[in-house]
Each structure stands twice: as C-alpha cells, then as structure tokens.
Amino acid sequence: MRTTLMAMLLIAGASPAMAAPAPQSAPQWITLGTAGGPVPAPLRSQPANLLVTADGAYLVDCGDGCVEQLAKAGIALDRVKGLFISHLHYDHVGGVSALLGLRYQTSIYAPLPIYGPPGTKAMVDGLIAAMRPFAMSGYGIPGTRHVDPAETVAVSEVSGGEPVRLGPITATTVQNTHYSFAPGSEDDKRFRSLAWRFETGGRSFVFTGDTGPSEAVTHLASGADVLISEIIDLKTTLAMVHHENPHLDEQTSDGMLQHLSRHHLPATEVGRMAAQAGVKQVVVTHFAPSSPSAALVTQLREEIAAHYRGTITMARDLERF
Description:
Blueprint: H1 5-12, E1 28-33, E2 48-53, E3 56-62, H2 66-72, E4 80-84, H3 90-93, H4 96-105, E5 112-116, H5 120-137, E6 153-157, E7 164-166, E8 169-175, H6 186-190, E9 194-200, E10 203-207, H7 215-220, E11 226-232, H8 234-244, H9 250-262, H10 267-277, E12 281-288, H11 294-305, E13 311-314, E14 319-320
Parallel strand pairs: 3-4, 4-5, 5-6, 10-11, 11-12, 12-13
Antiparallel strand pairs: 1-2, 1-14, 2-3, 7-8, 8-9, 9-10
Helix pairs in contact: 4-5, 10-11
C-alpha cells in the first residue's frame, strides 16, 4: 500500500475545517489570492484562483501561499483536478512547488494536468527535479518503494487560440498584451501571456490574467457571466515600487514604468472592456498596489462604474462567485 505513515497521520488528524465541502449545484469561482505581486501583502495572498465544479476543483494560477488558501477555502488537495497558468511570472507560479510537493507527500500520485504557456514544461521539470531527493528518501524507512515525481504531472503547453478540454471544463485561450515582444519573433514564440475563458455547468468565466488593453481579451469575454480582471493604479503602484526599491537605476526604473503603464489595466480600461464585451458581472482582483487603501478601492470601483453599468465586485481573498 502506497499511503505513507505520515499521510495516514495527516488524514486521521484532519480538522473539520479542512474537510471538503459538499459539491455545489453550479460552478463557483473562488478568489484565493487577490494581491498583485510580487510585493507581499499582509492582508492579501499572491495571485491564485479556483474554479469549483461538481467533479472537483481547478486552479487558475498558483501564487505563493496557494495551498494554505485552499485549506482556508475547505478544499482538500485531492480535490484539485487541474492547474491552468496564465503566465510564468513568479507571483503567479510561486506556489506550484508546494502544490506538487505536498500532493506527493500525502500520497496523491494521480497525474495533475497542468496547462500553461510555452516554458511551463521547463518550469515543472525543474520542480520535479527538486522533489526527487525527498521522493527517494521518503520517511527514512529502508526498502520503501518510491514513485517517480514525474509520474504525478501531465504538462501541456498552449500558445493561445487552441481549445482545452479537461473534465467538465471547456477552456479557450488568447494571447494578451502583458508582453510586448514583436509578433512572430523568437521571443514572442518563447514567452507568452494568456487570458482564459472557461465554460462549465452552463456558466462562463473569463480570466484576463495580467494584461494591458487587448481587443483579443475583450472578444474572448463577449457575453461572459463573470469577467475576472486585473487592475492597476499607476501612480500609487509606482510609489510602492520606489518605496520597496529606493535605489533602482534609471534603466530599470524606465523599464518598470513601461511595463506597469502598458502591460496592466487601469480602472477605466476594465470598465470599457466589460461594457464592450457585455459581461454580466465584473470581479476585480490582482490589485496593484498589492495593499490598496479602502479609499483607493472605492475610487477604482467608481472609475469602472463610469463605463460599465453591471455588477462590480472588488474582490477580497476567499470570496466566491
């Protein structure tokens, strides 16, 4: 029997709060982490989301602290049936190591499907290599057979445009504008940032990922039930960057300004996109700055509402939609 002594102890000692809740009749989206990384925030976890269906739960990005957020949401690791990644910036994938390692340590060996942009396989291969010393030593019992960690993942890379079907979910992707590599260039082929649309149980969820204004993302969101969008306030985010890094050289500072101003969505653009796409509800997450004041959150909501008349939620960690 593959279940380890430690896994049995963990199962026996599981608290009621960690027990899997009853399946929902309709799919739900949970904002596990709503900070815009990479600066850690005291009240918001790093970017991560969960699409919960009757057959299981599917992660959409997996920032640092994701496993702890799953526990707070009452989702056991064995309920996670897949991982969709928007892009490979570390604030969106920093929790993948813990996800894979703790699944393995608790004897969850079923291959986890992982879908992400080019480079995802190289990233996961590195994480699998880091797992092997523990996998081979186990809990120090001589002669214990170990499972190769590579057998516990199934990675597929997508570039934008191709459909993905996993369990009850049909997903489609487009390349967004979080990167500015010239179309068709080698960098453009190697590094991509994706927006995702998920259809399941009669509901549609569109996740912008990190992006600037994008006609492709707006088209992807057409008629969606829920648009989950990132947001930035450029002035306060730049102030935060310079506070955290007061000695930035001029070239780095200029590059950061270009990135923040071109590759993210100010509130007015969130409102315009939602209105043009005709979505039923907007859920705002990935706040930049990562610890926005209540006054700033209110201001951003009003700026969205100036263009979009539907339901707007400025999400907090662990909210369900």
